[in-house]
Fold these 4 entries.
Entry 1:
Amino acid sequence: MPVIECDTDLIDPGDVLDVDLTNGIIINRTKDIEITVKPLPQVMIKILTDGGLAAHFRKYGGFNLE
């Protein structure tokens, strides 16, 4: 699970969230607000899309940073 840092003052237990790691936006659907966060680097998005670090290594035989 990726770690993102954000101010959680606008998030309560039970709130429904959509997290856009590429663009750095958390949408709190319960309160209809957007919280801006630092986007993840593209290489992290690629690793997550591949299914995690182990799956990424199996697919490419190591890190593929391109």
Entry 2:
Amino acid sequence: MSQPNPPRPGDDAHVPDSVLDELSAAFGAADDPVSYDFDDPSIDRLLGLGPDVEPPAAPPVAPPVESPVESPASTDAVVLPFRSPRAQQVSTESAGEEPVQPHQPDVAHPTDRPEVPDQPDEAEVGGARRTIVIADDGQPDTVYLDEEKEERFRAVHGDGTSDRSTIVISDLDDGAVSQQPPTASGGSIDPRVRARRISVRRAEGRRRLVWVAVGVVALLLVVGAVAVVASPIFGVEEVRVQGATYTDQQLIADIVAELEGEPVLLVDTEALEARLQRDPWVERARVSTDFPHTVVIDIRERVPLATFQGGDGSWRVIDVQGRVLAVLEGQPISMMPIDGEHPDTTPGQFAGAPYADAALLVRSLPGEIRVLTRAVVLDSAVGTMSLLLSPSASASSEDPVVVRLGDAENLDAKLVRLLGQVRSGLEGVASLDVSTEEIGVVPR
């Protein structure tokens, strides 16, 4: 297509009306009101809307990028590719032509807006008005001369093809402008951010796997320990009993029978100790295990010191605390008898404080006095005590010497005074009173 010839100076016949209008608007007086008749066919010619008018030839420019936005279905709408003034200026300059400034109506100030005359009815101008649709052609408004900056801009904001907006300008009378909202962009994620998220998820998964593995291992250890503990491989094969002289032999036999074959690590030692200590003779019991097959029972028994005959005729054996250890049918000859009236105390019970004092006296007797002592006389009502002594070791058949001790206070001092009299001789003595510092001697 040939280039149009530039107008010659002084040739007014070749100047288009549109150029004259623009010059008039640019250099005319600001006070002169400018009115526009939108029904004038020249406006349609200027915009290229007339059916029989061809638009003026435009300088050759680079072909615009095809817009994926489809044209409206209506045949009355004309879709114009949207080009920024800057893009048009660059295109014109690249073609070697002088840029043509677009027509800008004088609308700088709202107060200076020219009055538009009343528009005639649509019926008078020959039908309904046309709708102008300006669609985005996908090119940015600014043409970047720096390719590196343009690439960064496209990387951040996209290439402009995914999010498009269409501006529809309908009837000029109602002034309604609708804009289609841009669709949500499925922008890509930075590969480094995606890699970081993947690594974080993998690290969390590895931590969960570690905790699960630890729990499984702990469970397996517990199950294995229970299996080993309950295994008959480590069953009890030997039970050693120490110190059981007066302890109930049937009780010990039952405990030994229960322990045989039981896993040594499952032996309840505390329960066995409590069971043994319920025996009156047992003062303390210790049960221990000797891995892998042995159980040791160590018993410390109470020491019997004296015996007394209850109202039922049975003899009670007591220790130093006055606890009844056993009830026997006959008198035990190895223990000091206590004369007097006594209660029928059952095994495991305490006879009372006076009997504990009498047992303490028996345990405190020196050897020289013990060999001469026949019995301890106890008055449980008042708590006083006396000794029945033989005058000598050879005169055991003679009447005994009665030694009054009183209560258990200062018992050591009283025994010291008695020991002095025994060493001096008890021949011809009927009774002694060592309860005070002045010894009272009653001769026969």
Entry 3:
Amino acid sequence: MKLYEHTAKEIFKKFDIPIPKSILALDVNSAVDAAKQMGDAVLKAQVLTGGRGKAGGIAVVKSTTEAKQNAQRILAMEIKGFPVKKLLVEEYRQPLKEMYLGITIDRQAKCPVIMASSSGGIDIEEVARNSPEKIMKIHIHPLAGLQDHQARTIANSLDRNKSREMIDIIRKLYRLFIENDCQLVEINPLAETESGIIALDGKMIIDDNAMFRHALKEEVSDSLEEVAKKNGMSYVGLDGDIGCIVNGAGLAMATLDMVTQYGGRPANFMDVRAGASAEQVKAALSIVSSNVNVKAIIFNIFGGMTKCDEAARGIIEKIPELKKPLIVRLSGTNEKEGRAMLEKHGIHMATSTEEAAKGVVELGNLN
């Protein structure tokens, strides 16, 4: 389960990790009132996805007029298909230096790994892609826990002059990670300000299997992952513009790889799973097409338990509402029937995953 920033920071506060003063606002008037209390303030869209800053979902405001204008603008936005329904209004803290600190699970090593970089902020993905040597990674033994020398090494990599403050935050963040059954917790940026080191942003993902220990059900109200789960499917949002709907995790990963090979960038992973009904297919198309960044959709079904004609029925029922170009590959049980149904409606058809992947990238480039 992904947590909103405001909830993550409430948990940070319980573990004495320094955060800015903030107020959650659900409408324009409450956002303006909160900004008045802060002086210079930051309005931050609360959505369960990344990329808010680049999308315009974060604004520094210095007056009531600026607060009102930006609150109206941000609350009217959708970011990667997520409507903005609330704002976190924070006191503005000028960062003198931005760093990154995160903890996740290394599934190959089967243990937590702490990641840190002295280059944080909105371009951390670029740092990871182009300068991976700038990101330090230290694995933590799950039984021994975080050792003092490991905390010192990480702290010194971030800022040797602020080592004591850094060590304290690193220890607290690791305890938070363990006690909250996290799959991921990160601070980006972890900022040096005139008043000390502070977490300017916070992200947390809690293991779904541990949710019985945490009363946080309200966090998933607008999560596409949760909508997919309720419909018996798996969905993971990505940063591309090619929507992908496939049955079977293996075929789904192969489809994503093939789309990437032909120069496309997948917008999501979606596995509609075996035996998908027409209603599930319609739901899958609704979920994937709700992402405003999606330019085209690939629908790749290998029919075993999933019947191709049943999948085709769901596609045909959804097509009148679908605003995105779609290419379909069907293979397996009732393939001929399914293909015949779709061809009557003029839907782009492919005979292989390779052909479908190449075709959907071409459609995306045209859209």
Entry 4:
Amino acid sequence: MNNFIESLGLSEERYDTESLMTSFFSEMKKGLAGEESSLAMLRAYMNVGQDVEKNRKVIVIDAGGTNLRIGTARFDDAGTLKIEHFQRSGMLGVGKQISKQEFFEKLADRVTPVINESDSIGFCFSYPCQAQPNHDGKLLQWTKGIDAPEVVGCFLGEELNRVFEARGIARKKIVLLNDAVATMIAGVSEGAARGAKGYVGFILGTGTNTAYLESGRVINVESGGFDKLPITEIDRELDATTNNPGKQTFEKMISGTYLGSLALVALKKAPLSEGGAKALAALDDLSLIHIDNFTAENGRDIGPLNDPRFTAEDEQWIRAVFMAVVKRAVRLSAVNLAAATIRNGVSPVCINLDGSTFFKTYRLREQTEIELKEILDQAGVDYFCVHLNDAPVVGTAIAALSL
């Protein structure tokens, strides 16, 4: 099995930590200098550690990779966030292309139930945007499979306000920020209480991204675009099936949207039994949830992998290949986190971790934290990790209430 894993290009030796760190730092430096880079390194125009007004309500839009959540939030006298009226629906543009008009009209429709709750909206937007000093943002590109090409290049807050005005609704004060930035901001209060001088926000869910603090500025890395690393044949095969080939290389190697599909591409090359090979050949896709449940042997739904044609040896192959894919994701996640932590230039650094893929994928979190510790111990950087429930919503509310 080890020889097959190596033939796929997934061996640990190929993804050497020192080489990856050097490449990541190089791309970060280029991005910050405005040079061509696979890391956008976007300034977020957000302040860190500002006091928020208590008991003032804001509307919160959380546009994630899978879900669109909308409701209200406020901090009570004790500083506890109260989340109310939240409704969850599918993210716009998933599985079907929609126009610019349809996108913003539907978004306005979903805000309508809470439109009169506040004059301010915190808009957490989990896609690459060029932040503006007025706290709006221009969409640079879609990731995570969203199909709404006419929205690219739009200023999201301004377009949403245009729909409101056309409906006779007064303009709202809209503060737009990336989910990784919101996650970083959410960790500031707990981090400060523990003596943190630097901050990182990291998300590994449907997609992935990182934000950190450098010289007083919040930087949205857009780390899913990193491409200065070894790319295998299975990566190229997967990439060709996506709606944004050649883009978001790093994201396609580690995030929840792609890990199951990547494992399936690899498994179709494995020397399985005749019956097992036929079972896999019939699959066009494989969800991360199903192969993760299968590998963890946790008794949960394993979907199409619950097939009697798989022999005991086939099952060993499935687990070994998936864990090789996960192990690479571990190495890449640790490098990403370490680079952002070191770039803070101070210590200790508070790292706020978020995302279902990071916390729910079998052994991914524990192995990532082990590798991260090895890198940062060697670099002499003091840090600690935290995890706050609903971190993107918390950070978005803080941002909207502190401006």
